[in-house]
Design a protein that fits this description.
- By secondary structure, the chain is of the alpha/beta class.
- The chain contains 22 helices and 13 strands.
- It has helices spanning 3-6, 12-23, 41-60, 88-91, 112-126, 136-142, 146-154, 156-167, 232-243, 260-270, 302-308, 311-320, 335-350, 358-371, 386-395, 401-410, 421-440, 461-473, 480-493, 498-510, 518-525, 527-535, and strands at 26-33, 64-71, 132-135, 179-180, 191-196, 201-205, 218-221, 228-229, 247-251, 278-282, 285-287, 290-291, 327-329.
- Helix 10 (260-270) links the parallel strand 9 (247-251) and strand 10.
- Helix 2 packs across helix 3, helix 3 crosses helix 12 (311-320) and helix 9 (232-243) packs across helix 10.
- The mean pLDDT is 93.
- Bound molecules: zinc ion.
Length: 539
């Protein structure tokens, strides 16, 4: 089977690549992000991985594609985002200025934007991508946008008409859709361009904003090299125009009727006279039902993610959901474990160890490929169950990897005979992930603390007999599965509801009603230790 027929439209990225290739062979996929706060996994979806995966799919299908990552650092700061450890009062004087001209929240960086951009670029690389980076601020200053700004000013009437019709708002007769950077106070949000001669642009700094005051300066400039910027609705299509963008995904909020996608498309066609890029809306990632947002402060950055899981897993999440679907994730609950189980399934399919039907297999193989940061390993890597590891590391916080491997073998959770160096690295990484997860995200009902002795309990004679029977049975050799079914039998033999028996055992061992799979748990902790606790019931 040739690679081309294999990848025919099995993922959304391949479908989009197919559409792009009908338009032409060469593509530029954009991600643009505003460095006002931390680059988080929601940004990593729309502004990084969606365009990167589309570009990869274009290349795999025989086209050529570049990916760009643009920091929109000429954008103004209009508020100090939550969740960033700075004195918001101190920053008030900078509101209304470009993010690149605002002091960094941390020492060692030139500006607010530089700090967050540096954090973003580090995360991007660790997620396995190397898009070409552009600072919008620097590009304006270099003159990259000069041509677009002149076109906009020369066609100001047309821009105004389209803007009014599409957004159903009114703009004054002589309105010019540019923002001059005031030569006196450095703000652009407070200025108004008043006349355009075809060469010179006159402006006044006269427009009060909620967050910034005008300085009343008036002047005249030749618009070039970053002394003028474009408002968002024009800036976005101007960016497509100057970079030759053919694909971009944008937040779904831009796609509403009369939104910036509608105006952007119209300006591309009527003002810049070039073909518009293919645009798709990308939904947010929600955490526990709340939108992740840099300005809310509930961010999970790539670095946070990589403390508890591999980059491949995040990539798999992105490729296995349509970009237009909201992902409801939760670092505390079982969603991370479930995602990893789905990834493991794709991995088994990729290595031919499982089949879910021809079409689904092809899709999963492709999703697995697009999830890889490096080349996929030659043979199937070891797979470990996340929730099991989370139990193991809590019972043995200090055990080294060799001891944990022994334990996993005794649990039959690790079946592969000869571990390659890569396997050992993977196991070691997973142990570290599980440790970090337990300390950062584990909910109370996943936190395990073994009792030294059983708490006082009011048990029936049958229930007590069942506990003693189990204690005696633990003198024999058991594997996890055999033990698990023996616990059920012991309950029934003593006329105790199995559910009730498990509850009793969890209370005796962990002082709670539920817990990890008991067969596993007893093997992990060790039969002797468990017996010692069960036997305290006698005293
Ligand atoms: Zn001013």
């Amino acid at each position: 089977m040739s690679q081309k027929s294999e990848i025919a439209h099995y993922t959304w990225a391949d479908k989009i690549a197919g559409e792009l290739l009908q338009r032409g062979k060469k593509h530029v996929a954009h991600g643009m992000w505003t460095p006002s706060g931390y680059f988080h996994i929601g940004n990593a979806r729309g502004e990084l991985l969606v365009p990167a995966m589309v570009a990869r799919a274009v290349k795999d299908a025989g086209g050529s594609a570049r990916t760009h990552f643009l920091a929109d650092d000429f954008d103004d700061m209009d508020k100090v985002p939550a969740g960033i450890d700075v004195d918001a009062e101190k920053y008030k004087e900078f509101l209304g200025k470009p993010l690149r001209e605002i002091p960094s929240p941390m020492k060692g960086y030139d500006s607010w934007a530089s700090f967050f951009t540096d954090q973003a670029l580090g995360g991007i690389e660790r997620l396995g991508e190397k898009p070409k980076f552009y600072s919008v601020y620097d590009e304006y200053r270099k003159g990259t946008y000069d041509k677009a700004i002149k076109i906009v000013l020369d066609n100001a009437g047309k821009v105004r008409d389209l803007w009014e019709i599409i957004t159903e708002t009114h703009k004054p007769e002589n309105w010019l859709p540019v923002m001059v950077v005031c030569e006196s106070c450095g703000r652009s949000a407070t200025t108004k361009a008043v006349s355009w001669s075809g060469k010179n642009l006159a402006y006044v700094c006269s427009e009060p904003r909620e967050y910034a005051k005008p300085c009343n300066h008036s002047g005249e400039i030749i618009p070039h090299k970053g002394n003028v910027k474009l408002p968002w609705r024009v800036h976005w299509p101007a960016t497509w125009f100057v970079f030759g963008t053919t694909f971009e995904s944008g937040g779904k909020d831009h796609f509403t009727k009369g939104g910036s996608v509608d105006t952007g498309r119209a300006f591309m066609k009527e003002v810049f006279n070039v073909e518009q890029p293919l645009l798709i809306g990308t939904e947010f990632i929600q955490l526990g039902g709340e939108k992740i947002s840099g300005s809310r402060g509930n961010v999970i950055t790539p670095e946070h993610w990589l403390e508890v899981a591999d980059a491949e897993l995040l990539r798999f999440m992105m490729i296995s959901y349509q970009p237009g679907t909201a992902i409801d994730f939760d670092m505390h609950g079982g969603k991370l474990f479930l995602l990893e189980q789905r990834y493991h399934e794709a991995e088994q399919v990729y290595y031919g160890e499982k089949s879910l039907g021809e079409k689904r297999d092809a899709q999963l193989r492709r999703e697995y490929m697009l999830s890889q940061v490096k080349k996929a390993p030659k043979g199937m890597p070891v797979q470990l169950d996340y929730s099991l590891l989370a139990t193991v590391v809590q019972m043995y916080p200090h055990k080294n990897i060799g001891k944990i491997i022994e334990l996993l073998r005794s649990l039959k959770a690790l079946k592969k005979e000869n571990l390659a160096k890569d396997d050992e690295n993977r196991i070691s990484a997973k142990i570290n992930h599980a440790r970090a997860w337990v300390s950062r995200y584990a909910p109370d009902d996943m936190k395990l603390k073994l009792n030294e002795a059983a708490p006082a309990m009011d048990l029936t004679e049958q229930e007590t007999d069942a506990v003693f029977t189990l204690s005696n049975e633990l003198l024999k050799e058991w594997d996890e599965a055999g033990l698990q079914s023996r616990i059920y039998e012991i309950a029934r033999e003593n006329d105790v509801e199995p559910k009730r028996f498990f509850q009793i055992l969890y209370r005796m061992l962990l002082s709670r009603d539920h817990g990890p799979r008991l067969g596993h748990f007893i093997v992990i902790v060790g039969k002797e230790k468990i017996r010692a606790i069960l036997d305290t019931l006698k005293k």
